[in-house]
Amino acid sequence: MSPETFFIVTSLLKIVAILFVVILPMVSYAVYAERKVSAAIQDRLGPNRVGPGGLLQPIADMFKLLLKEDFTPRAANTFYYWLAPCLAVMPAIITIAVVPFGSTLFGVPMIIADVNVGILFVFAIASLGVYGIVIGGWASNSKYPFLGGIRSSAQMLSYELSLGLAVIPVFLLVGNLRLTSVVHYQIEHGWFIAPFIGDWTNAWKWLLTIPMIISFLVFTIAIFAETNRLPFDLPEAEQELAGGYNTEYSSMKFSLYFLGEYAAMITGSAVIVTLFFGGCDGRCPDFAMINLCASAGSSFSRSRLLTFLSSRRFCLSCHPSLPLPLNLNLTLISSCHSITRSSPFINAH
Length: 349
Fold this sequence. Notes:
By secondary structure, the protein is mainly alpha-helical. The chain is 67% helix and 1% strand. It has 3 domains: 1-65; 68-281, no CATH class; 287-348, no CATH class. The longest helix is centred in the N-terminal third of the chain and has 39 residues, at 3-41. The chain starts with a helix and ends with a helix. The relative contact order is 0.11.
């Protein structure tokens, strides 16, 4: 197989896996989880009829939406009325292409498109989502959806500026816009949300925490606004707009709007984790190790501490940025011995 063919095949497999194994199931059960939480808050049962605990309710909802009558208002602009739901859902799905979801698998990078303008690609594609809402409200040829679309455009465009400004400290440190570089930087220097973990005496990292926490808070709030979630749900505003921009939609076109909203939530969460919480690396700062060393005398014997540290070898040896797993394992064990020898509390045991 030629390199070009291999690249195309692996890219298609990654797209199918992300879409049908990650995005769609997570959207379905995010809706289920939200309904369950809302029911608990309101002292209701929530979904409980289809499957154990209502776990098959998303599948039942899918068939219900597929089989419902697909109604198009007589006065609507048919072409744009059909186009709008697609414009709402596609940006959220396309954006996930530049977010790394792993290091490598059998030599294949676990990212669909590792472009060198990753975060700009995210902002550029995500900004197109407003067109689906505005065009849907306008094409329905009804005043309530139109008002909802106008309010949505004002909100979503306003918070894009906050999104762009919030990531400036991150990329000033990293030096480029590639999201994989952000992950590698955090592997070497710690999470951006708490860069001082593991290097407690470094005053520079404590000072760096201040702009990073501000960036994280601003970015998270702006993501809530971009995805129309509470308290930024003005585009829908059911209490005054009868559903907002999607009032005239039914069946699968209606569900595409919600698919786009929840897919945008998942993509936004993935971007937040990539920028501030280490991304796909999966290892948190060594809170557990720090706690173990601090309380070794009162809680752990030497053997239990050694067992804990040795159990971390698999994570270290699997990471591509650590080329000498055997040496690392030996270093880890020897450092563990030095910790235990230097602790009078452990020696007392």
